[in-house]
UniProtKB/TrEMBL annotation:
Organism: Streptomyces silvae
Regions crossing the membrane: none
The organism's place on the tree of life at top rank: Bacteria
Every AB hydrolase-1 domain range: 48-269
Lineage: Bacteria, Bacillati, Actinomycetota, Actinomycetes, Kitasatosporales
InterPro entries: AB_hydrolase_1, AB_hydrolase_fold, Carboxylesterase_BioH
Keyword Calcium tagged: no
Keywords noted in UniProt: Hydrolase
Protein name in the entry: Alpha/beta fold hydrolase
GO MF annotations, alphabetized: hydrolase activity
Length: 278
C-alpha cells in the first residue's frame, strides 16, 4: 500500500486537528514532504501555482488554514490551534516535513517549529517582523479596529483597512481590486480570519529586537527569502531572524516584492527547491 508521501493524487482531502477541526488540503507530487503555509487574506488557491512547481520534486501539501476555504473552524481561536493543524498535516505525511510560509504564514511556520512540530527545514518568505524603531509597523490599535469592523458586519472595510494600514497598499490599488468582484468577494470571506494573523504576529511588529528566547526551539536549517523591491524593513527582519537562529541564512531575490509568492512563483520555487534538497 502506498504511503502518504508516495501518493500523487491532487484531489481535496481532510485531516482532523487536535480539537477536531477538519483541515482541507490538496496533496501532489512525490518525494520529501513540504507543507505550504499561507499568509493573511490567502487560502490555498493563492499557492496553487507554487505547489505545482514544487510537486515536480516533493510531496506537497497545499492546505486551507482554519477558517478559510474548505477548512473548518472552532468557536475560539489561538495560534496554538493552527500549530496543531500543521502538526496534524505533518503526521499525515509520516511524521516529519519541511515548511514554506510567506508573510504571517512564515511566522506561523516558525512558531510551529519552535513548538516542537517535527520540521525538517524551514523556508520563509518575508516574515513581517518590525525590528527597528522608525520602521513602519501596523497601527497600535490594529486588533481593536479590525475586530470592531468585523463586529459591525463590515468585512470589506476590514480588508481595505488591513491592506492600506498594514500592507501599505495605495488606496487607488484597493479601489481597482474592488472592481474585480470575484477577487474582492473571496477577500471579504477571508476577512474574518484577519484577527488570527494578528494573533500569530503577537507583539513582533512593535519596532523592537526579536526575543531570542521566544524562538530558541527553532534549531532546524532555515532560509529566509526577501524581495529586492520590498521595503528595507523586510531585509532588516530577515537579518534579525538569521541572527538569532543557529542554522539560518538569507537570500535576496532581485526584482521581487512582498506579493511574489502569488505573482512570481517561478522565481521563488527554485530557491525553495535548492534549499529543501539540501
Amino acid at each position: 500500500m502506498a504511503t502518504a508521501r508516495e501518493q500523487s493524487a491532487g484531489a481535496e482531502a481532510r485531516v482532523a486537528s487536535a480539537d477536531g477541526t477538519e483541515i482541507a488540503f490538496e496533496q501532489s507530487g512525490r518525494g520529501p514532504a513540504v507543507v505550504l503555509v499561507a499568509s493573511a487574506l490567502a487560502d490555498r488557491s493563492d499557492t496553487t501555482k507554487l505547489a505545482a512547481l514544487l510537486a515536480q520534486h516533493f510531496t506537497v501539501i497545499n492546505y486551507d488554514r482554519r477558517g478559510r476555504g474548505a477548512s473548518g473552524d472552532a468557536s475560539t481561536y489561538a495560534p496554538d490551534r493552527e500549530i496543531e493543524d500543521i502538526a496534524a498535516l505533518v503526521e499525515h505525511l509520516g511524521g516529519s516535513a519541511s515548511l514554506f510560509g510567506s508573510s504571517s504564514g512564515a511566522v506561523l511556520a516558525l512558531r510551529a517549529a519552535a513548538a516542537g512540530v517535527n520540521v525538517d527545514r524551514l523556508a520563509l518568505y518575508e516574515p513581517p517582523f518590525v525590528v527597528a524603531e522608525g520602521d513602519d509597523g501596523p497601527p497600535k490599535d490594529l486588533a481593536q479596529r479590525i475586530t470592531a469592523l468585523l463586529a459591525e458586519g463590515r468585512p470589506s472595510d476590514a480588508v481595505k483597512y488591513f491592506m492600506t494600514k498594514v500592507q501599505g497598499m495605495p488606496g487607488i490599488a484597493v479601489f481597482f481590486m474592488k472592481c474585480m468582484p470575484k477577487i474582492w468577494a473571496n477577500l471579504t470571506k477571508l476577512a474574518r480570519t484577519l484577527p488570527y494573523d494578528i494573533a500569530v504576529m503577537g507583539d513582533t511588529q512593535q519596532g523592537k529586537p526579536l526575543d531570542a528566547e521566544e524562538w530558541k526551539g527553532v534549531a532546524v536549517p532555515t532560509r529566509v527569502l526577501t524581495g529586492g523591491k520590498s521595503p528595507a524593513a523586510f531585509q532588516r527582519a530577515a537579518l534579525a531572524v538569521t541572527g538569532i537562529l543557529p542554522q539560518a541564512d538569507h537570500r535576496t531575490l532581485p526584482g521581487l516584492n512582498h506579493g511574489a509568492v502569488v505573482m512570481a512563483p517561478k522565481k521563488i520555487a527554485p530557491q525553495i527547491i535548492e534549499f529543501i534538497k539540501g
